Amino acid sequence: xxxxxxxxxxxxxxxxxxxxxxxxxxxxxxxxxxxxxxxxxxxxxxxxxxxxxxxxxxxxxxxxxxxxxxxxxxxxxxxxxxxxxxxxxxxxxxxxxxxxxxxxxxxxxxxxxxxxxxxxxxxxxxxxxxxxxxxxxxxxxxxxxxxxxxxxxxxxxxxxxxxxxxxxxxxxxxxxxxxxxxxxxxxxxxxxxxxxxxxxxxxxxxxxxxxxxxxxxxxxxxxxxxxxxxxxxxxxxxxxxxxxxxxxxxxxxxxxxxxxxxxxxxxxxxxxxxxxxxxxxxxxxxxxxxxxxxxxxxxxxxxxxxxxxxxxxxxxxxxxxxxxxxxxxxxxxxxxxxxxxxxxxxxxxxxxxxxxxxxxxxxxxxxxxxxxxxxxxxxxxxxxxxxxxxxxxxxxxxxxxxxxxxxxxxxxxxxxxxxxxxxxxxxxxxxxxxxxxxxxxxxxxxxxxxxxxxxxxxxxxxxxxxxxxxxxxxxxx
Length: 477
Prior knowledge:
By secondary structure, the protein is an alpha+beta fold. The protein has 2 domains: 22-171 and 247-356, 2-Layer Sandwich (BirA Bifunctional Protein, domain 2), CATH 3.30.930; 364-476, Anticodon-binding domain (Rossmann fold). The chain has 17 helices and 18 strands. The strands form 4 sheets. An 8-stranded mixed beta sheet has the order 1-5-6-13-12-11-7-10. Strands 15-14-16-17-18 form a 5-stranded mixed beta sheet. The protein has a 3-stranded antiparallel beta sheet with strand order 2-4-3, with no helix packed on it. Helix 6 runs antiparallel to helix 7. The longest helix has 20 residues, at 22-41. The termini are far apart. Its EC number is 6.1.1.21. It catalyses: tRNA(His) + L-histidine + ATP = L-histidyl-tRNA(His) + AMP + diphosphate + H(+). InterPro entries: aa-tRNA-synth_II, aa-tRNA-synth_II/BPL/LPL, Anticodon-bd, Anticodon-bd_dom_sf, His-tRNA-ligase, HisRS-like_core, HisRS/HisZ, HisRS_anticodon.
């Protein structure tokens, strides 16, 4: 009797976790390489920390008996909770506290790697993504914050963004602290302050009216869901909205406007950052003061920054951010250790760069195999191209020419190299410009006669001995 077949698992990707291939990975690797070179040029050393940390090291994301996975992916190990890291900053705080006496102060490090968040996934929002961070631990100087902003500008330029395509917006949490104190919201009114913070953080998405509603009784969104507000009265809400609306004009103009609102320590901090940015030749277009920048994470204590991608139709979204977190290492050591850092969102920035640099997503030149007994000849041609610095691949399947050309399309190959019996007898190869062919075909539609006339532009022959030069010339055009 035949044994029943074992059940086969259904191939499915875990929810919110991306598969990445080819062009996506190439852009991300190039991005990390260029950003990390900037970080190292500025004197930051690389550091790798484990993917897992003890959950109590992750700050506010402490698992409890009822919700052990709140915010993070966690499991029990030897009766202790262990979690995948939520970001690269909390592991740094643990590392610094653990190795404090052996480290130079300030300690300057950069890191790149994946992080995981146990949150609801959505379009463009994954539960696993890469970050590339730089941090300075042990300096309370506003110049350290300014350096983060200036270095982020240098990193964005290094990956190919021109002036006018990005901007760093910055502010300080101390501004909001001063306003809340002025309107009578106590420093220990933690829940109220947190709702106000999160309301301001949504300014770009909700606008003045949306933020005003969240500062008051609350807001009902388009789906009908209601978010409870901070419960401020009209006068209190107006004071917060005055702060939110003070960020127009040059850095000097914004500083003067903020000085009228109040917060002496906050204004002094922003003036010092502005002076350092000027010394570092960071222009107004590259970095601007914006009081709506407060950042969502709760561990920030002072300066906060956000990198934004800008296009012809306005701001496309955040491509990085950071700020000062003077209390994070203190959780381990019991003493305040000043720290500041900036994190570049690799996946989001890579997506922007990929659309901007579409030409870099071409696959390899493909050498077709017209006779399986002549695979060695095709391998030799691909090897010759690679030695000349051209990406090249030999087709090693068993299909015919038509299927091989379909394979070339799927690989985004710019050129196909063909040497059948006729070409071999003549000592030539045929080069088929697949990119040009696709462009012409799209323009001509169903006009087969016109396409036949254009064929000589798409396909040409070259002596076998001149293969490399012919391919390079076709790629250049």
